[in-house]
Amino acid sequence: MHDDTSTLGSALRTIPRDQHAISRRQISQSALRVLYRLHEAGHAAYLVGGAVRDILVGLAPKDFDVATDATPEQVKALFRNCRLIGRRFRLAHVVFGREIIEVATFRANVDDGSGDREVHDDGRLLRDNVYGTIEDDAIRRDFTANALYYAIADFSVRDYVGGFEDVENRVLRLIGDPETRYREDPVRMLRAVRLAAKLDFSIAPDTAAPIPQLAGLLAEAAPARLFEECLKLFLSGHAVASFEGLERHGLLGALFPETAKALASNRSGALRTMVVAGLRSTDARIAAGDPVSPAFLFATLLWPAYCRTLMKLQSEGVQPIDAQRRAADRVTLHQLSTVALPRRFSLPMQEIWLLQARFPQRQRKRVTRMLSHPRFRAAFDFLVLRSAASDAHAADVAFWQEAQRDPDHAIALFPGEDDADGEAQAPRRKRRRRRAPAAAG
Ligand code: ATP
Ligand code: MG
What we know:
It is a single chain. By secondary structure, this protein is α+β, with helices and mostly antiparallel strands. The chain has helices at 29-40, 50-56, 72-78, 134-139, 163-168, 178-184, 187-199, 205-208, 211-214, 223-234, 239-248, 252-255, 257-265, 270-287, 294-315, 320-336, 343-356, 364-371, 376-389, 394-405, 407-413; strands spanning 13-15, 45-48, 65-68, 82-85, 91-96, 99-105, 120-121, 124-125, 148-151, 157-159, 171-172, 202-203. Strands 1-10-9-2-3-6-5-4 form an eight-stranded mixed beta sheet. A two-stranded antiparallel ribbon has the order 7-8. A hairpin with a 5-residue loop joins strand 9 and strand 10 (157-159). Residues 49-50, 62-63 line the site of magnesium ion (MG).
């Protein structure tokens, strides 16, 4: 089955069933059905990629991918519930209710990971992909831990790249020459940080070394793909570890240039404290099964950039309300050139920022209006985050906590400031402190 033409000259190691921890009980029924059906039809059938890796380290896989020597057409012929997707490289999706098992034919070429791409030549669709052997399929993958194959034929694990040992040692290692692999696909740098955070693996020194120097290549990656990658980095329950990994490997500036600049120039470290507090609460919500919103996440990640831009505009004499609006727009626009944040998230993100300026206002009418604002709850949660990093917001938090229960009582307890419309939220500008009566908690 394998004609050995690998440039790496990798050797197959087969780990028999009694020497690894993968049991069929950890594999979904749907995936097993696909594997068995392919096998019974005489095809090679393996569970591959993240699922094998996750089971080996004791995590529950998100999804199950299958690799086979059957062509997509042969796969389709075996399953009624199968559709073929992709133009450049055909993949089979076998659908079981809400679960989709992706079945890919062994492929030989390098995968840039960007999924389906049309390649035109005189309007013609080019099929520049060629099918390959299982070994070709293994070495075009990114990390050794992602290139393990669980064979349904004998329940062994097939390892062409030393991945089994790397998983045992909890090391993330690129297959092949790291610099070459990052140049092929710069997003692999983010995947290294993300998977190390998720799996609690170290990154092999050779794999980590080129990252800071090559970080700039991410500017060429598709912004839509970087958005997807951001969601995986920060909304999978390992946001703090991912953020620290990005910082450690010099990638934060490649993803969020303005935020990186703002953090570097914020000597007190309060902005970073606030971001990390936000990511920690995101992780806690995911651990508790609570919903998380990309708008709130990006409001957190880009808050340092917003504050910095706002201060700059105000120092140039722009009036607060105007400065807030312009800072929000400017930060959003700049960010879009690296990460394509869809409008359905960027608009509520901006609202969360702009509402911050309204928290110090305590006239009855304004309080009522604020409480009924559709984004009030998110904005208030955001204020709570800010107060985790700076004691300047404690009184506002106390007031609005009470106001949600009883606005009149809150106003009586905390005599309002007759303030003009937009008190700006420049983070280092100290607002007048009010003392919260102890009773207000
Ligand atoms: P998770 O699903 O936990 O995010 P994963 O490793 O399963 O992690 P996927 O994006 O689902 O990640 O990719 C599935 C598999 O495809 C990977 O395990 C890897 O073998 C291969 N792969 C994904 N992205 C790349 C890439 N950029 N370059 C090479 N191989 C890749
Ligand atoms: Mg996966």
